[in-house]
Amino acid sequence: MTERLEDVRRHRAVIDEIAEVVGALRAIAAAHSTEAQAALDAILVYEGNVASALARLAIAAPIPGTEGPGLTLVVGAAQGFCGGYPARVAETAQRLAPPGSGLLVIGQRTEAMLSEAGVTAVWSADLPAAPRFVPALASQATDALLELGERFPGPINAVSGLDAPGLEVQTRAIWPPASRVPKAAA
Fold first, then answer.
1. Torsion angle of alpha carbons 93, 97, 101, 106, nearest 10°?
2. Is residue 53 scored above 80 in pLDDT?
């Protein structure tokens, strides 16, 4: 009986240790969430500035030929801890990227899923470890888009979404802006 009581105490001690680890992981996750939420406002302002600059550029400059498959920028997930998000992004990219287009993939897990499906990215990068590294990644992606634009002429689109059940992954035109895309003759 004493032996069994001692086993129960040992198991209880192990469970308490596991609970401490889980508590620490929750605290780390909460800190990351708070940091990301704080950065979101700045990121949205940055997105608005970029969209405004692209719109001004589109008004001021003639649109170069949009013939060709172009480029597709895929923003996915770094790891597999995001539920079905990486799979939804990879499936949408495969379905919506024009044949022959250059795929630029951000997110190691999403790139791996595309690779497993036989789709090769012409450029890739992992998601940054912290929001403060987002501007550097945005700069690298912009450089890659400019460099690869000659090899893959045509429009530039982005595939991304929110990691929430029921929300669709979106495809948005980066260049030319949707308002400048020539309309097909009816």
1. -30
2. no
